[in-house]
């Protein structure tokens, strides 16, 4: 046991600053603590071997992050020594952390009993056998400590997207810490995370080629990304995979690292749809009215598997494979009768699921967090009066296109279980899919989520992100807002985009990158690429040429910035900005050319042939841009990730054959 030898401590009057304030610099700064210097890059990180496994794993990543920045990897130690410069620990695990905080004049209540909170501060000579100053990273619990670790990683220059977007870390010979106590407080939303969905053909093909499927090797990278973004929740991929069954380590690793897993709106009781689909002949119909005994057994097996985890349990039930119970809606009188029957059945489903939860866990059902998804036809049950038990989170949703459908009124906000929001930046469904690119205007996402929080929806926020890529920016904005929804308003929202771009490309490139990213989101949000065709804009008034020219101008500006970047940043810039801008500019040019071809053909104007050739060139360029993304960019790391159909849709579910060149004369 380490004996505390306090030679100096902070004043009892502790001033707390936001972790987002500038507290790391790479030059000496007014008496700051020199964590790393050109003469002394080697040091040790102390963390108790009895710490949470997830914390120890994050410390390992912190070691690697320092090596990325300074080219020197700190050692991990569990004994005090002269070269210890960072101490890491959780309030609920580390007696040393509690003593250091007390000596520093930081009251226990700053962390004790808090949810996912961290603080970072400097202390002078608090360890035996050492006269060195240290940096303390302390968390209220496992995730709080992990968030503190990754906060330091981000401030020394390692982007949360370093792996998922190939963002380089700038090299530095020195790292200085401004003295103070830094914290981001507690998160505003309890469960904050993503839904990997609609993951074929892109993410599925890539994950299969790189990892062999949606296994723990794949999810390790997902969990790390979530934690670096201060998220804690995941609905995993489910189109052709079964998270719990395909690789049992998926769940074990999530629990170890600190990720709370749930199952989607039509996958109740910690069971994946594919687990039923693969045995449908054995199990029979997914119909609770006629097959209750088998389905209850299916539910029980799922609950037994998740009993010892933090997993959030989805309750209720929908039809087989993301469909309404009882099939499609009929005529008005049939619709009302069916819904009343389904509501009575749903009340029984709630009751039986809660009984299973109690029997499996040995605790009252209200002690195990649950959520009921009020999605699609289920909202009609809610509108007609169906309510879950009082402790259950009620998860409302957007309209699949980024517009919130329903929020609780004053009476509804009294619901003890609280409310959640299921929001889309990716969607598969009528009238057309939106899967290929990010088409979410920055301001719309901010407005809808701020509205969501202002109406008391603060228990669960989950974002449907499709293939994760290329949704890097909306993911970041969504999760930043989930931590602190009121940090940004209509006046300072551009600061978020600027800060994000600075973290990826450096401060001197940030302003221009943010401007281009904002305009891209604005332009692409007008109509999704899957819905775009030659008739979208008015050719006669010049509207078509105007919108096409706007994208072509933006492409020229993005290409100009791309050329000016240091080589190490070019792959990241291409993923976030250049490829989406070029792809959309090319698509607009192609459909504008098709509109001109049809117009001139009708006029018997031979220039129609020139515009037909432009359509063909643009169609071929689209394929080349995607090939470069898959096979050339980042050394081919993302092979298969950019294979989504986006040209030639006739209905929402006609993914095959692949892209079809628009008709020309």
Structural overview:
The structure is a single chain. With 665 residues, the protein is of the alpha/beta class. The chain has 19 helices and 18 strands. It has helices at 53-70, 95-103, 142-155, 202-211, 216-228, 243-246, 249-257, 273-277, 280-283, 292-306, 332-361, 378-383, 442-454, 472-483, 493-505, 507-524, 543-564, 570-602, 608-632; strands at 16-18, 24-25, 33-36, 44-47, 75-77, 84-90, 118-124, 133-139, 175-177, 181-183, 191-196, 233-235, 260-261, 313-315, 370-373, 393-397, 419-424, 460-466. The strands form 3 sheets. It has an 8-stranded parallel β-sheet. The protein has a 7-stranded mixed β-sheet with strand order 1-10-7-8-6-4-5, with helices on both faces. A 3-stranded antiparallel β-sheet has the order 2-9-3, with no helix packed on it. Helix 13 links the parallel strand 17 and strand 18 (460-466). Mean pLDDT is 94; it is low at 1-13.
What is the topological layout?
Elements: E1 16-18, E2 24-25, E3 33-36, E4 44-47, H1 53-70, E5 75-77, E6 84-90, H2 95-103, E7 118-124, E8 133-139, H3 142-155, E9 175-177, E10 181-183, E11 191-196, H4 202-211, H5 216-228, E12 233-235, H6 243-246, H7 249-257, E13 260-261, H8 273-277, H9 280-283, H10 292-306, E14 313-315, H11 332-361, E15 370-373, H12 378-383, E16 393-397, E17 419-424, H13 442-454, E18 460-466, H14 472-483, H15 493-505, H16 507-524, H17 543-564, H18 570-602, H19 608-632
Parallel strand pairs: 1-10, 4-5, 4-6, 6-8, 11-12, 11-18, 12-13, 14-15, 15-16, 16-17, 17-18
Antiparallel strand pairs: 2-9, 3-9, 7-8, 7-10
């Amino acid at each position: 046991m380490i004996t505390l030898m306090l030679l100096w401590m902070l004043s009892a009057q502790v001033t707390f600053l936001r972790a987002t304030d500038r507290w790391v610099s790479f030059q000496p700064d007014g008496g700051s603590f020199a964590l790393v210097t050109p003469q002394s890059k080697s040091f040790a990180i102390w963390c108790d071997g009895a710490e949470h496994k997830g914390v120890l794993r994050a410390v390992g990543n912190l070691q690697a992050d320092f090596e990325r920045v300074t080219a020197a990897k700190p050692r991990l130690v569990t004994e005090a020594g002269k070269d210890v410069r960072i101490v890491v620990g959780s309030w609920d695990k580390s007696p040393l952390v509690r003593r250091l905080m007390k000596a520093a004049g930081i009251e226990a209540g700053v962390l004790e009993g808090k949810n996912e909170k961290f603080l970072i501060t400097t202390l002078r000579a608090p360890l035996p056998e050492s006269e060195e100053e240290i940096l303390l990273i302390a968390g209220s619990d496992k995730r709080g400590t992990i968030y503190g670790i990754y906060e330091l990683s981000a401030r020394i220059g390692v982007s949360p997207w370093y792996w998922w977007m190939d963002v380089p870390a700038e090299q530095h010979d020195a790292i200085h810490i401004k003295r103070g106590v830094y914290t981001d407080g507690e998160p505003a939303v309890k469960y904050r995370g993503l839904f990997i969905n609609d993951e074929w053909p892109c993410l599925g093909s890539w994950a299969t080629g790189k990892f062999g499927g949606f296994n723990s090797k794949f999810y390790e990278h997902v969990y790390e990304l979530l934690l670096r973004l201060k998220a804690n929740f995941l609905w995993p991929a489910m189109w052709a995979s079964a998270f719990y069954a395909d690789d049992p380590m998926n769940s074990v690793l999530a629990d170890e690292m600190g990720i709370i897993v749930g199952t989607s709106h039509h996958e109740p009781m910690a069971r994946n749809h594919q687990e039923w689909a693969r045995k449908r002949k054995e199990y029979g119909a997914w119909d609770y009215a006629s097959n209750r005994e088998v389905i209850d057994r299916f539910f029980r097996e799922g609950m037994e598997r998740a009993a010892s985890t933090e997993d959030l349990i989805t309750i209720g039930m929908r039809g087989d494979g993301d469909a309404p119970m009882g099939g499609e809606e009929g005529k008005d009188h049939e619709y009302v009768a069916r819904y009343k029957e389904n509501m009575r059945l749903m009340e029984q489903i709630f009751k039986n699921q809660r009984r299973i939860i109690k029997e499996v866990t040995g605790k009252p059902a209200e002690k195990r967090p649950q959520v009921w998804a009020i999605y699609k036809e289920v909202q009609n049950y809610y509108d007609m009066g169906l309510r879950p038990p009082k402790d259950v989170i009620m998860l409302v949703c957007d309209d699949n296109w980024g517009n919130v459908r329903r929020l609780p009124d004053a009476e509804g906000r009294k619901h003890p279980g609280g409310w959640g929001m299921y929001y889309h930046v990716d969607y598969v469904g009528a009238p057309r899919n939106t899967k290929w690119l990010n088409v979410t205007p920055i301001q719309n996402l901010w407005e809808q989520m701020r509205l969501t929080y202002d109406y008391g929806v603060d228990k669960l926020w989950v974002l449907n992100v499709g293939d994760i890529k290329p949704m890097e920016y909306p993911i970041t904005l969504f999760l930043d807002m989930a931590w602190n929804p009121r940090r940004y308003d209509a006046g300072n929202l551009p600061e978020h985009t600027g800060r994000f771009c600075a973290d990826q490309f450096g401060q001197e490139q940030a302003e221009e990158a943010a401007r281009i990213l904002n305009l891209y989101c604005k332009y692409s949000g007008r109509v999704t690429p899957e819905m775009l065709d030659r008739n979208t804009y008015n050719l006669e008034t010049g509207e078509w040429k105007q919108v096409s020219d706007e994208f072509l101008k933006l492409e020229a500006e993005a290409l100009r910035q791309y050329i000016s970047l240091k080589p190490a940043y070019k792959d990241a810039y291409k993923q976030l900005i250049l490829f989406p801008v070029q792809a959309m500019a090319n698509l607009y040019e192609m459909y504008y050319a098709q509109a001109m071809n049809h117009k001139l053909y009708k006029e018997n104007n031979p220039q129609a042939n020139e515009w037909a050739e432009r359509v063909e060139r643009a169609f071929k360029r689209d394929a080349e841009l995607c090939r470069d993304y898959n096979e050339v960019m980042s050394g081919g790391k993302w092979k298969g990730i950019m294979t989504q159909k986006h040209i030639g849709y006739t209905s929402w579910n006609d993914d095959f054959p692949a892209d079809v060149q628009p008709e020309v004369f």
